[in-house]
Amino acid sequence: MLQIQQNISLKPFNTFGIDVKAAFFAEIFNVEDLKALFNKDITKTQKLLVIGGGSNILFTQDYDGLVVKISISGIESLIEGNTVKVTAGAGVVWNDFVNYCVAHNFAGTENLSLIPGTVGASPVQNIGAYGVELKDIFHSCTAFEIETGNIKTFNYDDCHFGYRESIFKGDLKGKYIITSVTFNLKTEAVINTSYGAIETELQKRGIEKPNIADVSAAVSHIRVSKLPDPSTIGNAGSFFKNPVIEKYEFADVVSNHPDVVHYPTADGKVKLAAGWLIEQCGYKGKIAGNTGTWKNQALVLVNHGNASGTEIFNFSEQIIDSVKSTFGVTLEREVNIL
Ligand code: EPU
């Protein structure tokens, strides 16, 4: 039964653990709940924020509107020869979905092990890690159109995926709520260990012919060793995107900083490792009041206890200024600021 609560603390609903309040809050367990909610006037009079795992948001103030938490569950799979289509509810915790796939020996998600967040949020920012992006395994998703209440299917081409980008963050921002995602996976493992750290970790474990459970375990191990666990130290993963710059801009950077960590992109640009840039500015593991950067990964900002969103935001401004004045490169936040 749909319930709308008032004056609810959002602390349990954002992985930074920021203690702000939502004026109104509703949790959605199925599409019928969504339809019932959007039949109510409150959705016309209040501003709206849709959240999944709350793993990509920084609240800097109370939310004076309606927060809608998507908790639509369920996973189904359909095997067709050596491919399998797996459909998961938008509220399924991403790593539970990965674990389901690994347990069923469905290949494709294992490099994305332990990413925080939910299935429904995964296409929005085209999550990625260790050489794989969501778009590589995406088949389609269904979404509720806020204006009409219709459910629409989005295929791969409709989603305009880019690096941490999709149409749901762009032209269609605020117009649809993703209700389920269908993935194209393989029943015969196609292992991708191209990312050096995975190869190294598998070698350390003496594994020559890894299966998908081995890759998932290696990725999980790497993540746990480099990234803080949001259940103990508030954070939202990478706070900034890795900046992508033009070749001529890169020529400037590399002439002053020959050891800059960089990668070519498919469209002839250059991606810089933001973690490296931040570390060079002296920020790795820095503690600034209640906030700071993580000791093993400077790209991750953390809440050491009772940080306010504004404190973390102001610290991120300092980092942007410092990287700009040292390298002439402007960092963009990956996390949504509210
Ligand atoms: N580096 C440093 N210092 C640091 C951090 C990184 O020098 O403090 C260097 C590393 O040595 C390495 C390079 O930067 O040479 C890249 O580092 P890493 O492999 O840790 O990856 P990343 O580019 O910093 C991205 C994603 C992560 C994802 C990893 C692994 C973005 C914004 N971040 O980080 O995604 O887990 O690759 O594939 O693209 C996230 O989005 O929340 C996230 C954690």
From TrEMBL:
GO terms for biological process: cell division; cell wall organization; peptidoglycan biosynthetic process; regulation of cell shape. It is found in: Cytoplasm. Its EC number is 1.3.1.98. Keywords: Cell cycle, Cell division, Cell shape, Cell wall biogenesis/degradation, Cytoplasm, FAD, Flavoprotein, NADP, Oxidoreductase, Peptidoglycan synthesis. Pfam families: FAD_binding_4, MurB_C. GO terms for molecular function: FAD binding; UDP-N-acetylmuramate dehydrogenase activity. It catalyses: UDP-N-acetyl-alpha-D-muramate + NADP(+) = UDP-N-acetyl-3-O-(1-carboxyvinyl)-alpha-D-glucosamine + NADPH + H(+). One of its GO terms (cellular component) is cytosol. Its main location: cytoplasm. Residues 17-188 form the FAD-binding PCMH-type domain. Its cofactor is FAD. It comes from the Bacteria. The keyword Membrane does not apply. The active site is at residues 164, 238, 334. InterPro entries: FAD-bd_PCMH, FAD-bd_PCMH-like_sf, FAD-bd_PCMH_sub1, FAD-bd_PCMH_sub2, MurB, MurB_C, MurB_C_sf, Oxid_FAD_bind_N. Pathway: Cell wall biogenesis; peptidoglycan biosynthesis. Cell wall formation. Belongs to the MurB family. HAMAP family: MurB (MF_00037). This is UDP-N-acetylenolpyruvoylglucosamine reductase. It comes from Pedobacter jejuensis.
